[in-house]
Amino acid sequence: MAKFLVQKCDPLHGEIHISGAKNAILPLMAAAILTEDHCVISDVPELKDVTVMEKILESLGGKIHTPEESILDIDMSGLKTNVADYELVRKMRASFFIMGPLLGRTGRAKVHMPGGCTIGARPIDLHLKGFKALGAEVIVKDYYVEAIAPPEGLTGAAVYLDFPSVGATENIMMAAVCATGTTYIINAAEEPEIVDLANFLNKMGARVKGAGTDNIKIEGVESLHGAEHTVIPDRIETGTFMLAAAITRGQVLITNVVPDHIKPITAKLRECGVIVEVSDEGLYVIADQNELTATNIKTLPYPGFPTDIQSPFMAFLTTVEGASTVIETVFENRFMHVAELNRMGANIRIDGNKAMIQGGKKLEGAQVIATDLRAGAALALAGLVADGTTEISEIYHIERGYDNFISKFKSLGANILRIDD
Ligand code: EPZ
């Protein structure tokens, strides 16, 4: 298995360009199922998860080609099945996003249950609640989920989400765009990736209103046509590089950023004494001017502090003198990185969904394991300031979700090597 060797480095300096958002491109690719026309998506990040989604769409009969770098031309006119390939689906939880568009376009969808993962059970009850509300019969058997619309097709309905689930909001939105009548998603997720999907669907001829609020109204239309779209920048990659500048006490200019999407991260870093300046060029993160101080974070659905930045932010807090707390409210098991950070000399105690960090102790390089995508990034950040070498295994998590992770860090002065065992 491949590993990262991370050496202690000087404060990071330079400029970094943010790629298209992983959590936007995956539902956008799934939405292309809804039309027989070509969909052309630009600023597509180079990620293993994108490759998996391409293979899933091809297994359904789709044709995908790359006319230019970071542009995908998706043609789903050859859709030949509405049963997803188990071997491909099991590789990536986000493959469950094909359920809604398959149901919306063909009236039937059969997809293997998405696996849970280290951060939680990752149930799909809210997705299924939405499909049922639209009139589909849902059968869960032999670890497959099958949704079948009635002969007259799906009918718009009001769906209350007990939790503002990102995936459920996206899946239900994609199933509802061609339903007869109007659908209301109440207590919907408000993430920027939801807005990006709604904008794409509306370019395809859908009538989605209210995306970005907790109430989304979808008026069903006859059919959708092709569209062109550019993926929004990745706010989580942005936060990761903001924290790379902060943890190394460097100065980094981050371009291709939507400042509105990272307001909680900016606010908390400023509370710690990091200077964050927004200019026409991009986002300047300056972390070598002030003595940095501890703070407390609590993850919440958007626009609250993003759960995906919880572990990278915790890595940063281990290097700041004083007591900080991190409360995780979105996933039930997203502290797997704590044991790994403590192996590097951090002093973190867990009490339920709260982690107490006594920051300021020197970190030591160690052999650690990436337990999920963002935990892997957190360990790489810690490795930048830990004495000696930090060896991170299970790095496929990181390569699934960060575009050119190593080369981007190297361009800022980091010393990270990828080795194959
Ligand atoms: C999306 O996952 C993201 N993934 C996650 O990013 C992100 O952490 C998460 O949203 C929250 O922002 C993609 O977009 C591909 P949820 P998703 O449904 O849709 C509960 C990363 O690192 N829930 O909003 O799976 C669930 O148990 C990944 O990039 C139900 O109870 O997240 C969890 O506690 C990690 N029933 C909470 O909602 C359901 O039917 C949030 O899950 C669905 C979810």
Name a few traits of the molecule.
binds ligand EPZ; elongated; four-stranded mixed β-sheet
Write structural notes for this entry:
- The chain has 421 residues and is an alpha+beta fold.
- 31% of the residues lie in helices and 25% in strands.
- The protein is built from 14 helices and 23 strands.
- It has a four-stranded mixed sheet with strand order 21-22-1-23, with helices on one face. A four-stranded mixed sheet has the order 2-14-16-15, with helices on one face.
- A hairpin with a 5-residue loop joins strand 11 (207-209) and strand 12 (215-219).
- Helix 1 packs parallel to helix 7 (192-203), helix 8 packs parallel to helix 10 (310-317) and helix 8 (235-247) packs parallel to helix 12 (373-385).
- The protein is elongated.
- The model has no long low-confidence stretch (mean pLDDT 96).
- The protein binds ligand EPZ.
- Residues 22-23, 26, 94, 120, 122-127, 163, 165-168, 189, 307-308, 330-331, 373-374, 401 line the site of ligand EPZ.
